[in-house]
Design a protein that fits this description.
GO biological process, one term: methylation
CATH superfamily of the domain at 420-605: Vaccinia Virus protein VP39
CATH topology of the domain at 420-605: Rossmann fold
Helix content: 25-40%
Strand content: 15-25%
CATH class of the domain at 420-605: Alpha Beta
Distance between the termini: 20 Å
Organism: Chenopodium quinoa
Strand order of the largest sheet: 8-7-6-9-10-12-11
Pfam families: Methyltransf_29
GO molecular function: methyltransferase activity
Largest sheet: 7 strands, mixed
Number of helices: 19
Structural class: alpha/beta
Family: Belongs to the methyltransferase superfamily.
């Protein structure tokens, strides 16, 4: 369908506009860009490494030059006989408002998966259906700013009903409904039996610390929270400057992951009933499970072996489980001098039981790799082939990481990575982030006002909370956000097929994961405020996956009015802008004016309602 501007031209010149006329227009546009550039040659929108010469780079000059670039691309599409907006995709039906690909219990059962595998992620069974845009529910509202959004969320933004609350038992002890359309979370309400703060303090004392504020000093920074409930423990850890990552299995309603992300807390879908989690060995300082629903004595201890694989040397496994667990299980009470099955098994993998209070047990993984060789009996050490990228590989019954160069006790770890290439990247991203915020600030507060009402502080520190770096390299973008004191956390994604820098990212205390971008990301719709990708399109150009499917997936996981920043060569950006217009994003191409073929594409997802 042709644009109104094109229809006007057709009425004047006829339906077949001469090619020379387009050529003349193209020359005029290019000339306009040259004239503008020469008249303001001292202004540069992107500096190299040093601080920006002009803090506020978004000016009338930039708008005019940017519009010229947009018009240039539009004329190229028109000259080729196509219209960049003629194939806008339609909205999906109401049944897909909370659509999560790769989690289809019916299809998994038909395919023969059982014994818990039917609840796993099976993208091999996923088939692309009619392409459409996942729309928000009718009651959806833009989340509150951080940190208010941590404690109060809109009930219409998550798939959970009032009946779910009333029948939830202990859930209602930690949550309450306000005015029928909000859910409030109480920071100090009960997580199991005591308040969250008391619970964290007890954990700290059990491992020999004075208080939970000493976790960082003891080397505990990254915590894998399995079955995180509604994020109360994770929210408290965030206040202590720790990095908790919630993982939980896919749930149709009342999803723990969806609620945690809605609160601005790091989370993703994941379980290890049959396959490893997409993290390398020696990734976390602590693994926490509070009534997470895992049968730890199942599959001959394979689940505990996976926890051992994920724990760093000297790391802790915290297990809180109700006292009503039947005798004979892993958590059975000790009788006389006999060891329970769990105590026997953990000793065989060089764990020590540090403390047991009420229903909470705390083990510590050995910090001495020679412990495995000194055992009289125990599991074998994994071979090298098991130490490669752990991307949903089958669970293994061997000890991982014992020969790794990354074997370093958490209490003896140095505070930083001494890699020159990493620091060079970090300085680059500090500069790039300043420019990003200079571009986004006026867009948010003038061209695209994201919040009506009260004026917001500049730049918008608290409007972008959940960020994903789709091609994270060494995590430099994450580091720049922290250095810039932005109130954001980053899911650092290392694409499969690129150098595996995830261990380095995790060792810095950041959240991260391996992912194949030919597949959907394991999260719910509308869970991120910003997606960032530098070089991602070029990286994926050799893959046998659809770029349109990638953009549809990006649209699915973006919140309404959220942002996308893509940096790549001009050809990749031109293609990306085509896809962006098809999924109804507002897209702007930015020329960094540094003599390279690199371009920046800044997009905003609109708030679409049917």
């Amino acid at each position: 369908m042709r644009s109104s501007w094109f229809n006007k031209l057709s009425l004047i010149f006829g339906h077949r506009i001469r090619h020379n006329w387009f050529l003349l227009c193209l020359i005029s546009i290019v000339a306009l860009v040259v004239i503008i550039g020469s008249s303001s040659s001292s202004l540069r929108e992107f500096d190299s490494i040093g601080p920006p010469r002009f803090p506020n780079v978004y000016t009338n000059y930039r708008k005019l030059k940017e519009q010229a670039v947009v018009d240039y691309f539009d004329l190229r599409f028109l000259a080729s006989g196509s219209n960049p907006r003629q194939k806008e995709l339609s909205l999906c039906g109401k049944e897909k408002e909370n659509y999560v690909p790769c989690y289809n219990l019916t299809a998994n059962l038909k395919a023969g998966f059982k014994d818990g595998e039917e609840f796993d992620r099976h993208c091999e069974l996923f088939r692309n259906e009619d392409r459409c845009l996942v729309r928000p529910p009718k009651e959806y509202k833009i989340p509150l700013r951080w940190p208010a959004g941590r404690d109060v969320i809109w009930s219409g933004n998550v798939k959970i009903t009032k009946d779910d609350f009333l029948s939830s038992g202990s859930m209602t002890k930690r949550m309450m409904l306000l005015e029928e359309n909000q859910i409030a979370f109480h920071n100090d309400d009960g997580l199991i039996f005591d308040g969250v703060k008391d619970y964290a303090r007890q954990l700290a004392e059990s491992i020999g610390l004075g208080s939970d504020s000493d976790f960082l000093q003891a080397g505990v920074q990254t915590v894998l929270d399995i079955g995180c409930g509604f994020g109360s423990f994770g929210a408290h850890l965030v206040s202590l400057k720790l990095m908790p990552i919630c993982i939980a299995a896919y749930e149709v309603t009342g999803s723990q992951v969806q609620l945690a992300l809605e609160r601005g807390l790091p989370a993703m879908l994941g379980n290890f009933s049959s396959r490893q989690l997409p993290y390398p060995s020696l990734s976390f300082d602590m693994v926490h499970c509070a009534q997470c629903g895992i049968d730890w004595d199942g599959k001959d201890g394979m689940f505990i072996i996976e926890v051992d694989r994920l724990l760093k040397p000297g790391g802790y496994f915290v297990l809180t489980s109700p006292a009503t667990k039947p005798q004979g299980s892993l958590l059975a009470t000790k009788k006389g001098n006999m060891l329970t099955p769990v105590e026997d098994f953990t000793q065989r993998i060089c764990w020590s039981l540090l403390d047991q209070q009420d229903d909470t047990l705390i083990w510590q993984k050995t910090a001495d790799a020679h412990c495995y060789e000194a055992r009289k009996q125990g599991l074998p050490l994994c071979q090298d082939e098991h130490e490669s990228q752990s991307y949903y590989r089958p669970l293994v019954k061997c000890i991982s990481g014992a020969h790794s160069k990354r074997w370093a006790p958490i209490r003896n770890r140095s505070n930083g990575v001494q890699y020159g290439e990493f620091y060079e990247e970090r300085e680059y991203w500090k500069s790039a982030l300043r420019n990003y915020w200079s571009l986004l600030t006026p867009l948010i507060f003038s061209d695209h006002p994201k919040r009506p009402g009260d004026e917001d502080p500049l730049p918008p520190y608290n409007m972008v909370r959940n960020v994903m770096d789709m091609n994270a390299f060494y995590g430099g973008f994450n580091a720049a956000l922290l250095d810039g004191k932005k109130s954001a956390w980053v899911m650092n994604v290392v694409p499969i097929g690129s150098p595996n820098t995830l261990p380095l990212i995790l060792d810095q205390g950041f959240a991260g994961v391996l992912h194949d971008w030919c597949e959907p990301f394991p999260t719910y719709p509308r869970t991120y405020d910003m997606l960032h990708g530098s070089g991602l399109l070029s990286l994926l150009s050799s893959e046998k996956c659809s770029m349109m499917d990638l953009f549809l997936e990006m649209d699915r996981i973006l919140r309404p009015e959220a942002w996308v920043i893509l940096s790549d060569n001009v050809g990749a950006i031109e293609m990306a802008r085509t896809h962006a217009t098809q999924i109804r994003w507002e897209a702007r191409v930015i020329d960094p004016q540094n003599g390279s073929d690199q371009r920046l594409l800044v997009c905003q997802k609109p708030f679409l309602r049917k």
